[in-house]
Amino acid sequence: MGFWLLAAGVAALAVVTVLPILRLEHWLVRSHDFPRLQYAGAALLLLLTQYLALDWSWRQSWVLAAVTSACLLYQAFWIFPYTRLHRKEARSVTAQDADAILRIMSVNVLMPNRNADQLLRIIRQAQPDFLITAETDLWWQERLDVLEKEYPHSIKCPLENLYGMHLYSRFPLKDAAIQYLVEPGIPSIHASIQLPCGREVKLHCLHPRPPSPTENPGSTQRDAELIAVAGKVAEAENRSPVIVAGDLNDVAWSATTCLFRKISGLLDPRVGRGMFNTFHASYPFLRWPLDHLFHSNHFGVIGLKRLPGFGSDHFPILVELALVDGLESHQEGLQAEPEDEAWAREKEGSEDVGKEAVHTPDASR
Questions:
Q1: Are 211 and 248 in contact (CB under 8 A)?
Q2: 155 domain residue, yes or no
Q3: pLDDT tens for residues 121-134?
Q4: Does 171 fall in a domain?
């Protein structure tokens, strides 16, 4: 009986390990991209149990151990870059020119959450130069507007559908726009930021819908939005410094996020520094990196920090970057192969991305 119970556990582990390899976009498949750390832990527990409980004179015992080990190694392959054992993708730098430093805080507030005062305390302690919020409705906008003295520049898109977005900035914003790249009612914010040093930074703030039984049945729309922005970044004639941030409803180690990095050429500051899991704030053993910031190779990383919880299901994340001349030739992210570009075209074309984009050019104050 014990052998067959272990065999059933190994079979379940093998299924959830193999499923994400398939390029099926249904949420039942894509949901297994998320808990790779938990699946790796389950594989370790299974191996320990097998070591203690199985009769190793049986060939079947070795088969179970081999399958479990293969699953563990495969899960570890995806999460290893987000450990300190891996080489950093974005270089660490020390603060030099204060006018070329920017601190970005991104947070999903969880729209029904009402702990605005606690979030405001966290913001004032963190002192970001830019605050990006997701799931902010009119109630949240009214509470966050007390920041306008410190953050005089803003783009506001309050919505009651869990996809409202706001950007508050210490620095002037140019060419500000709210766009609906793929789905009506699912906005993204795009702007150029004028730093005190005179340099401009392109900022893209995203919060696509996830594949889930209550949202989209598949990942088609989410993936299309990520690849559409990746393509915009890659095709820009003048490669200005770029930042893409927000709750992407995808984990750092998924094939889709890796594809986004390959097409855009942007770096992930988490690589070599840690996972910085931001979701789910209420369940320590069920967490993964869902809130992201990617940046071009113009930037080095001063610091990366997960901030305290405040009643949301997400933790805020704070990233401090510095524009450093000459870094471009010393930093390189994932490289796109021809098959990656073909897959990106397939994803981007699946929803006629950009053909129905809605622009709001006067969105900033």
A1: no
A2: yes
A3: 999 999 999 999 99
A4: yes
